[in-house]
Amino acid sequence: MRRFPTLAVAAAAAAAIALTVSSLAGTAVAGTPTGTGTGAGGRTADNPISAYLASLPAGYQDNQVVLLDFNTRLKSLPGVDRAGYVGSVDDVAGRSTTVYWHGAPALLDRLRPLASQLGIGLKVAAWPYDAAQIAAMSRKLLHAARTGAIAGFTGSAVVGFDPATPGLELEGSYTARPGAAAPAPAAVASQAASIAGAPVTVLPGTAGGAADGSRDSDYAPFYAGGLMYSPSGGEICSSGFAVHYSGADHITTARHCRPSDFEAVDNTSAKYGSTTAWADGGQGRVMSAGGAAFAFDGAWNSTSYWKGVVGFRDLSVGDSVCTDGANSGVHCGVQVTKLTVYWDDGYGSEPTIEAYRSAGVAVIQGDSGGPVLVPLSNGTQIYAAGMIQRWAGTNLNPNCGGTWYTGSNACSATVGFTSMRTVVNSLSGATLTTTS
Hints:
Elements: E1 8-13, E2 16-20, H1 48-55, H2 60-76, H3 80-83, E3 85-91, E4 96-101, H4 112-117, E5 121-126, H5 131-146, E6 153-161, E7 168-174, H6 185-196, E8 200-204, E9 209-210, E10 222-224, E11 227-229, E12 236-238, E13 240-245, E14 248-254, E15 263-264, E16 267-271, E17 275-279, E18 284-296, E19 306-312, E20 320-325, E21 329-344, E22 349-357, E23 363-364, E24 371-375, E25 381-392, E26 411-412, E27 414-419, H7 420-425, E28 431-432
Helix pairs in contact: 5-6
């Protein structure tokens, strides 16, 4: 297995932090996955998704799947964002959801019979801004916070919907020189609110960065969660869910993973190819190599498990997901905390989703582009929920746990990702590649 002895942080693009290397150690050993299908076989210890499902209370994951089905129906209603939908908060244990709406929720009334039929408790809460207002205010504030317009503070992301905070939240860090006093949070919030035209809560200490960084010896058609390495730049990223685009199934990754010479790190003849299309709305990149309707399961070094992709699911605050970046493997029990978090990957700001794992790491550099998924309770199939983009909050290094790359990874319990539905909808005529 090829390993990297050192890590350097370089600006792959504005505000994007990439994994780079100075030299290679060891010899590449080509390998292949140990089978095909939806994931039967392999060691139990290599199957964290099934272990996670077994740890949940009886009926919990079935409740989540029902709530996700409802939320997906809601998000699929034509014109739902223009009609006033902002976001949802799920109480999975209680099988209920609260839908946040701007204005009269007439369109939502069409789904009340479905909620009753599914045994879902449906509540509606008012929100002071609609989706278009949130987008405009968030982009304006993020641009200002990244270009020095807010004295003593630099921004990394803007949260457009957090049910605990009506208004916006500005994530970032103070820029006062050593020995100088940082501005008071109230002063920063006042400046930010003046720019955005809405109340702003300041969240310092949340700078974060891009999360770019068997999985290591995959081959076309590639699975999601594979480890991609660029010989020219030393960059590491992860492969995402496959999409059917322009008549073929293609593998994807994050937009800030830019090299055109990505290859499977321990199978150098397996090339991920050049760019076929940019999925800008979801900060995604479609690559020329073929993709399959499967995602790797297990730890960073597992070759024994994979799961079949059966469709999309749209998330609400309170839902739980698993991240599946190639550098660190699967992390489950990651709970959605914020929606509509605007983040600039160096090529434009777009809405992302934030989720937090209370029991350890959720994301590590090198995981960028990897899948965010929701497992079905059958343990063999998954829903595509998102594409990993960044880490946020506190860097937990040196407590990152096991990884393929053993250098100075930045890692965090908070992950930012784009919606996989948004990635696909950004591509004309594209669909998610599934097993059916």
